[in-house]
Design brief:
Strands 1-10-7-4-2-3 form a 6-stranded parallel sheet, sandwiched between helices. The chain is α/β, with parallel strands linked by helices and 484 residues long. Helix 2 crosses helix 12, helix 3 crosses helix 12 and helix 16 crosses helix 18. It is globular and about 95 Å long. The longest helix is centred in the first third of the chain and has 23 residues. The termini are far apart. 49% of the residues lie in helices and 11% in strands. The structure holds iron/sulfur cluster.
Length: 484
């Protein structure tokens, strides 16, 4: 997908004006955190598990070359072909070459954020190979020509009637008068359509939640079981993953799975958790004849040596999105690329370049909830703050307030002058706002007054009232005191 992160402000304005989107997000951002909390309350050792997960990931990041080589050796011994790719373009070409050598016309896919990151669907289609998404949410947005609005629930911005309408429009071979008013009917219809695609596909393409160095296996989790059909029915399987997905052992993978399911969907364990190791062996009842893993860097090694290294611990659980008040207000599309919410506000500038996502680090209230719920204890607010600092130093949007901040700093270093300036400003605003009690527009304060009113001050500063009280005089009454 083409990134529109530079247009975040416009995107967000559009999202805020979308009443239907607001409704969809309101229920989702309530139910997911509740489910997560319930399941965590049942596991007293959840915090210890988080510490363990963090130390596994930190250990891997400190020894990434070692574990990647071990993974490659083990995977190759099981018959898997590993393809190292520096960037998205190489990964796309590699996948296309595999499809061409298999004579593929149709590729079934399970949900993969790396697939979205490299825009593999658009690329395959442009080269005569038809990709078919098989996760229900991904399938819905694919047929609508949209991008995911959440890393776990890609069609969260849609309601049942939207989906029914799309299915009627696209599935023209089915009876026009069929009922599609219940979620079960929508699900049944998607299943019917996708069954034929599963059976006809020449190549299956998945992501990988983890790569296990001990065994050369990929780990794929879903709640629909579609990835298992994608992996086992076509003759050729391709998994695409970024470098930091590797973990040392099966036991480490189990620790992270326990964190992932609880943080992502509030489940003890995801419905389908598959460990796949190499192609079909003699005697296996099913599985692909060829098994390829496309291992892609695409900016990860650059992050490894920098301030955003901790972000490479991310397991894409989506908890930070589900708890973010900014995401809850605008949804995922406004962020303009694959990754949204707090993790997107750090990942997008890190992977695409800060100049392509100037506003994202500012899309935060700094309430700190994202870090609080992150199973990998990623310091997201500190990272966003760091990106803001960089913008300030480099003269980006954050530097626009430089003059105002300088003036504030000048006054703050001179308390007497500060008090006088405040008293003057507050007194002036009180006179200007008299009668209305609020400002709908104020020069130099449009960022505040654009979406909301600014209450007019009462005429005295807190400091002057406080000083008066300390001198023993009863503070003079403000205009609103005594009002009902
Ligand atoms: S940053 Fe943390 S909470 Fe957000 S998706 Fe990644 S692991 Fe989950």
């Amino acid at each position: 997908m083409d990134a529109t992160s530079q247009r975040f402000r416009d995107n967000a304005r559009g999202a805020l004006a979308d009443g239907r989107l607001k409704e969809s997000l309101a229920s989702f951002t309530k139910t997911f955190p509740e489910k997560r909390q319930k399941v965590i309350d049942r596991l007293p050792e959840f915090d210890a598990l988080r510490d363990e997960g963090v130390s596994i990931k930190n250990h891997v990041l400190a020894n990434l070359d070692f574990y990647l080589e071990r993974f490659e050796a083990k995977a190759a011994a099981a018959g898997t072909k590993i393809h190292w790719c520096r960037d998205a373009a190489e990964a796309r070409e590699t996948i296309l070459a595999i499809c061409r050598s298999a004579g593929a016309r149709t590729v079934t896919k399970s949900k993969s954020m790396i697939g979205e990151e490299i825009a593999i669907n658009e690329f395959l289609e442009a080269n005569g190979v038809r990709p078919v998404e098989t996760d229900l949410g991904e399938y819905i947005i694919q047929v609508r020509g949209e991008s995911p609005s959440h890393i776990l629930v890609p069609a969260i911005h849609l309601k049942g009637p939207d989906i029914a309408e799309t299915f009627r429009e696209k599935h023209t071979a089915l009876p026009a008068g069929r009922a599609l008013d219940q979620p079960e009917a929508i699900l049944r219809e998607a299943r019917t359509v996708l069954r034929g695609e599963f059976l006809a596909a020449d190549v299956g393409l998945t992501g990988a939640n983890m790569l296990v160095a001990e065994t050369g296996s990929i780990v794929v989790v879903t709640n629909e079981g579609n990835a298992d059909l994608v992996m086992s029915l076509p003759k050729v399987h391709v998994a695409v993953a970024s470098l930091e997905k590797v973990v040392p052992t099966l036991e480490d993978a189990a620790t992270i799975l326990r964190l992932l399911a609880r943080s992502a969907t509030g489940q003890d364990i995801t419905a389908y958790t598959t460990f796949a190791t190499g192609p079909k062996r003699p005697g296996d009842p099913d599985g692909p004849d060829e098994f390829h893993i496309v291992l892609m860097d695409n900016g990860r090694t650059a992050m490894l040596g920098g301030e955003f290294r901790d972000m490479l611990r991310c397991i894409r659980c989506g908890a930070c999105l589900n708890h973010c008040p900014v995401y809850a207000g605008i949804g995922g599309h406004a962020y303009g690329w694959v990754y949204s919410g707090p993790m997107g506000s750090v990942l997008t500038p890190s992977l695409l370049g800060a100049h392509k996502a100037d506003d994202l680090p500012n899309a935060s209230t700094f309430c700190g909830k994202c870090e609080q719920v992150c199973p990998m204890r990623i310091p997201l607010p500190a990272m966003m703050r760091h990106l803001r600092e960089r913008q300030f130093v480099s003269g980006g949007p954050a530097a626009k307030g430089r003059g105002a901040l300088k003036l504030w700093a000048f006054l703050a270093r001179r308390p007497a002058l500060y008090r006088r300036a405040m008293a003057l400003g507050v007194g002036l605003l009180a006179i200007l706002g008299r009668g209305r009690g609020r400002f709908r527009r104020l020069p130099l304060a449009s960022a505040w007054t654009g979406p909301r009113d600014l209450p007019a001050p009462e005429g005295r500063t807190f400091q002057s009232l406080w000083a008066e009280r300390r001198r023993g005089k009863p503070a003079s009454r403000s205009r609103t005191e005594g009002r009902p």
